[in-house]
Each structure stands twice: as C-alpha cells, then as structure tokens.
Amino acid sequence: MNHVIYFVRHGETEGNKQDIHQPLEMPLSEVGIAQIEMVAQSLLPLHPQRIYTNDYKYRLQHTAEILADALQVPVEVTEHLKDQSKPTLLRGLSKDDPQVQEVKKLQRLHAGDKDWHYADEENLHDRIQHVQQFLELVESRDETPVVATITSTFIRTVRYVIEHGTTLDAEAYERYEKEVPASNAAVFVIGQKDGGDWEILEWNKTYP
C-alpha cells in the first residue's frame, strides 16, 4: 500500500496576528476556526481514515477537533508530532525581541551539533527524528489517506527530510525557514513511492 498524508497547518491564532512566540494553550481565532472548517470540506471527498495530532500545543489539537467533527474519523495523539523548536522562555515574546534574536543567533551557530540545545528546546536533530518516527508510524498501518495537524516548523522539517535525509545542514535548513512557504490552514500532501521513499505531491494549498 502506498500511503498518502495530508498535513494541515493549524488555523490562524491571535498569536499569529501579533507575530509572537505563542503560549502552548493558544486556541484558534474565529478566522482560524473558519479556515479549518473550509479545509475540512475540501478533505471530505478524500475519505481520510484517521487524524493525527499532538496535545503539546493546543492550536494543533483544536485544529484536529474541528476536522474530526466534520470528517467523522478518529483522532490519535502522538508524541511524534511534537514541536518544541523554541525554548519555553521565549513564549509570549515578539519575534523581533532582542532576546529572541540572540537565541536564534545561537541556534544557527550550533544547528549542526545534534547534542547542543538552548534550554529546553528541541534542535534540528530532534525534529528530524520526530519526522522519521511519524512516517514510520504511518507506514506501519494499513490506513490511507490520513491527516496530521502540524506547525510550520514541523512541515518544513518534513520537506527537509524528504529532500536532504538526516544530514544536519544548518545553512540548508535556514533557507527552508526563510524561503519555504507554510501558511496558516494550508494543506501539504506527501505520498510514498513504490520503493518506499516519500515525495511531495502538493505544497501550501490554501482555501479562500
């Protein structure tokens, strides 16, 4: 069986509008809820078998709940979709805050070192492992297509793994962060080829 995954980035939050590093409990805004309701309608004809999410960030779980209500499919929480790419101490701070900029500078400097972490963050090596483990989970089951709710960091890491494997290339990943689009409530589709490798089928599809 060739698997297909529809990754859905969470809908808009107030934190997105304020351009801050968001608290874990941040829900979707009214606009974000409406966005995900439209995504759900687009997914209905595809008959997804399951929705995967993570309860570490409520905006992911909130997105999954809206999708599940419309699609009438089970939701499974998995730690493999966890994304803690920013340390706890940055939550609530503007992305332009000097402290945030200093942490990002250190993260870029050490991005190629799998053993280096700033406080309680998950580094690039950790995020690559999460992606690999999630893909292995999907491959182990006879269900397709499936849906997964994710952050922009997670989906960019998915693309990085598909195109670069497990190599820690800090400069390459930084380009992904700057140049690879990942809009709120966008859908990203990947499929498994006959040989077992994954490929990108659609990227950053948004709905009006």
Based on the model shown, name its key terms:
single chain; 208 residues; alpha/beta; Rossmann fold; six-stranded mixed beta sheet; 7 helices; 15% strand; globular
Question: What does it look like?
Answer:
By secondary structure, the chain is α/β, with parallel strands linked by helices. A six-stranded mixed β-sheet has the order 3-2-4-1-5-6, sandwiched between helices. The protein has seven helices and six strands. It has a single domain (4-205), classed as Phosphoglycerate mutase-like (Rossmann fold), CATH 3.40.50. A hairpin with a 5-residue loop joins strand 5 (187-192) and strand 6 (198-205). 34% of the residues are buried. The model has no long low-confidence stretch (mean pLDDT 92).
Structural class: alpha/beta
By CATH, the architecture is named 3-Layer(aba) Sandwich
| Rg, Cα atoms, Å | 16 Å
> Which stretches are poorly predicted, pLDDT < 50 over at least 5 residues?
none
The CATH homologous superfamily name equals: Phosphoglycerate mutase-like
Write the element-wise H/E pattern from the N-terminal end onward: EHHEHEHHEHHEE
CA distance, first residue to last residue? 33 Å
Give the number of domains.
1
The spatial strand order of the largest sheet comes to 3-2-4-1-5-6
> What is the residue-averaged pLDDT?
92
CATH topology: Rossmann fold
Count of strand segments = 6
CATH class: Alpha Beta
The tally of helices reads 7
Q: What overall form do the CA principal axes indicate?
A: globular
